[in-house]
Amino acid sequence: MNPSDRPRPIFSSLQDEPGGHASIETFVLGLSHHVDELQEAEVQRDFARVIELADGLAETSSTHGYEILSRCCEGVRNAAESASAEDLHKALVELTEIAHRIRLGYRGSV
Predict the structure, then answer these.
(1) What is the pTM of this model?
(2) Which contacts qualify for 35-39: CB closer than 8 Å, 24 or more apart?
(3) Residues 61-82: what's their mean pLDDT?
């Protein structure tokens, strides 16, 4: 694999803030659980639950310095509001990729 083909890590904008490391660590370590919950709600076509989960993740993402993930959650919310299974799936694939890149960034900063 060409190094330029690898996903680029995403870092928290708050990673250099004093005392923020533990909070960011807790958020990043729980991120896969949030993604799993969203994917499960998608499979069940529970659009209301997707909206609820996306809103919660958007808020905590922003709080922990991951604005890109917060914006992606807004896309997931919009797709769920339109009840478009295809758009929701695309938005969740993007969210999953961003979550992966966040985990790469976090592991690289430890």
Answers:
(1) 0.88
(2) 35/95, 35/96, 35/99, 38/76, 38/92, 38/95, 39/92, 39/96
(3) 97
